[in-house]
């Protein structure tokens, strides 16, 4: 019944160490061997998840895909072939960066191939290290040198999510009618071009592959997964998902991201064993 599984990575597929547990790896391997597409749908860029693709034997493979930057980019894994990209205008990225300079946030600016980080803190630096994410640390409070670069998104990081949410009203002159704003990983507020989200990208890929929406499964844990969960044929929340995500999903896993969320999903809905 299901032909495509789109899954968030951090706090869904990946555990606290940003690794794939063996149960998830084996289940995904069995599913893909039967022709089912497994598609990472991540807020990160393609180049920062090549270790994940390698672990799943999907790296540099034809007819295998990644939805990255919250749906800003659609990439075929073979040769990192960019199929679609809907990034931010530089002027808006600059406004977001300059607004963040006067707030208690670490700022990320994502281009196609790199992430530029200003005001790095120790916790965020350690997270990047565990993920294996390459980054460029900005020493000066400016992104003028990125004027001619394709910018995918901007985000702010602070472990106090209510503080991040409190910035929303003040930012309306920048965001209203121009940006999609979402929250993720219990530490980020993310800014994409208006109309860009994981759900729109999922339907775009499904159409490209001649897969009906009802033949798709989406799996996630946080607010930036909501659009994908709402548009998939079957929506699944990780056991550790925020309550707002659990509330809209068809199924909530018993497993958390540390226990094998994807293994549970695949066993129950894709390749059920006797008694399920």
Would you write up a description of this structure?
Strands 8-7-6-9-11-10 form a six-stranded mixed beta sheet. Strands 2-1-12-13-14 form a five-stranded parallel beta sheet. It has a three-stranded antiparallel beta sheet with strand order 3-4-5, covered by helices on one side. The protein has 276 residues and is an alpha/beta fold. The protein is globular and about 55 Å long. The protein folds into two domains: 4-85 and 197-270, 3-Layer(aba) Sandwich (Rossmann fold), CATH 3.40.50.1000; 90-193, Hypothetical Protein, Haloacid Dehalogenase-like Hydrolase, Chain: A, domain 2 (2-Layer Sandwich). The chain is built from ten helices and 14 strands. The protein has helices at 22-33, 50-55, 90-101, 122-131, 161-166, 172-175, 198-208, 226-231, 243-248, 261-270, and strands at residues 4-7, 37-40, 65-68, 73-76, 81-85, 106-111, 115-118, 136-138, 151-157, 179-184, 188-193, 216-220, 234-237, 251-252. Helix content is 30%, strand content 23%. The mean pLDDT is 96. Helix 1 runs parallel beside helix 10 (261-270).
In short:
The protein is α/β, with parallel strands linked by helices.
Low-confidence stretches: none
Which superfamily, in CATH terms, is the homologous superfamily of the largest domain?
HAD superfamily/HAD-like
Beta-strand share of residues: 15-25%
In spatial order, strands of the major sheet run 8-7-6-9-11-10
- Give the proportion of residues in helices: 25-40%
Determine the N-to-C terminus distance: 16 Å
Structural domain count: 2
Succession of helices and strands:
EHEHEEEHEEHEEHHEEHEHEHEH
Can you summarize the main beta sheet? 6 strands, mixed
Overall mean pLDDT stands at: 96
According to CATH, the fold-level topology of the largest domain is Rossmann fold
Radius of gyration: 18 Å
SS element count, helices: 10
Top-tier CATH class of the largest domain: Alpha Beta
Coarse structural class: alpha/beta
Question: Which overall shape is indicated by the principal axes computed on the Cα atoms?
Answer: globular
Can you name the CATH architecture of the largest domain?
3-Layer(aba) Sandwich
Give a count of the beta strands, DSSP E runs of length 2 or more.
14
């Amino acid at each position: 019944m299901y032909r495509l599984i789109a899954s968030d990575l951090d706090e869904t597929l990946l555990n606290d160490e940003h690794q794939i547990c063996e149960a998830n790896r084996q289940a995904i391997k069995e599913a893909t061997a039967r022709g089912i597409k497994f598609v990472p749908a991540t807020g990160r860029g393609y180049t920062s998840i090549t270790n994940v693709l390698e672990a799943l034997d999907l790296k540099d493979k034809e007819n295998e895909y990644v939805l990255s930057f919250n749906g800003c980019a659609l990439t075929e894994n073979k040769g990192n072939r960019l199929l679609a990209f809907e990034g931010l205008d530089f002027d808006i990225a600059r406004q977001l960066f300059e607004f963040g300079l006067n707030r208690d946030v670490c700022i990320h600016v994502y281009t196609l191939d790199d992430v530029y980080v200003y005001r790095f803190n120790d916790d965020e630096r350690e997270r990047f290290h565990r993920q294996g994410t390459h980054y460029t640390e900005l020493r000066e409070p400016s992104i003028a040198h990125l004027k001619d670069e394709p910018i995918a998104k901007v985000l702010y990081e602070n472990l106090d999510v209510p503080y991040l949410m409190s910035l929303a009203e003040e930012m309306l002159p920048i965001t209203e009618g121009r940006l999609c704003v979402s929250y993720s990983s219990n530490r980020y507020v993310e800014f994409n071009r208006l109309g860009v989200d994981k759900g729109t990208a999922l339907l775009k890929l499904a159409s490209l592959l001649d897969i009906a929406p009802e033949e798709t499964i989406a799996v996630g844990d946080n607010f930036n997964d909501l659009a994908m969960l709402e548009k998939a044929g079957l929506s699944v929340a990780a056991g550790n998902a925020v309550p707002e995500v659990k509330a809209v999903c068809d199924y909530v896993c018993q497993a958390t991201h540390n226990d094998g969320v994807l293994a549970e999903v695949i066993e129950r809905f894709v390749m059920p064993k006797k008694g399920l």
